[in-house]
Amino acid sequence: MNYPSITLWSDSSFISPWVMSVYVALTEKGIPFTIKRINLLSDEQTQTAYREPSLTGRVPLLQIEDFFLNESSAIEEYLEERFPAPEYERLYPRDREKRARARELQAWLRSDLQPVRQERPTEVLFAGVTFPPLSEAAERSAAKLIHAALRLLPEGQQNLFSEWSIVDIDLALMLNRLALHGDPLPVKLLT
E strands along 78-135, which residues? Predict the structure, then answer.
């Protein structure tokens, strides 16, 4: 098969959960790609050069030939349309309502739960760093996350929508901020 040239731009330390989500999406689709690392904390020249192709100046950035796209959920929806099932692995549930719920959960995981993300940053996931106990605000945020996960995860299933979807990865990454730090989680969410 003749694939276009595809590059996934990542932070230089590979600690972005959103880059990981896109990495998994590309891998599940079976699409060959290369990774380009960018040090977003480096000198101004590097940042300026990166801002030319990147609308947001953040990672992930997907480059397919001369098309550039930021924001992991937008990238994953684009990949789903550009490389559709059944020829390529599906990223979102088949069922329209489940697909809508998956996108709702993706948007929520990226826009809410800020206290958990601040107090359990990705260094917990990828570098084993530990932090002080959760503040009250982070505990409330974690409780919202746990409540949603318990509500959405059917009993006896390992995924949210009776089939694998990219949102399973996103939820697992958020829950693992707590689990890998030793914060309490219900047994159902640990397995």
Answer: none
The overall pTM is greater than 0.70: yes
* Whole-angstrom distance, CA of residue 104 vs CA of residue 134: 26
First to last CA, the chain: 38
What are the structural domains of the chain? Answer: 6-82 (3.40.30.10), 96-190 (1.20.1050.10)
Residues 6+ apart with CB under 8 A from 148: 105, 108
Q: Is-contact 61 49, C-beta < 8 A? A: no
- Output the pLDDT for position 46: 67
Which positions of the chain have pLDDT values less than 70?
Answer: 43-46
16 burial level (CB within 10 Å; 0-12, 13-18, 19+): buried
- CA dihedral over 29, 72, 3, 9, signed as positive or negative: negative
Q: Residue 83: how many CB atoms within 10 A of its CB?
A: 18
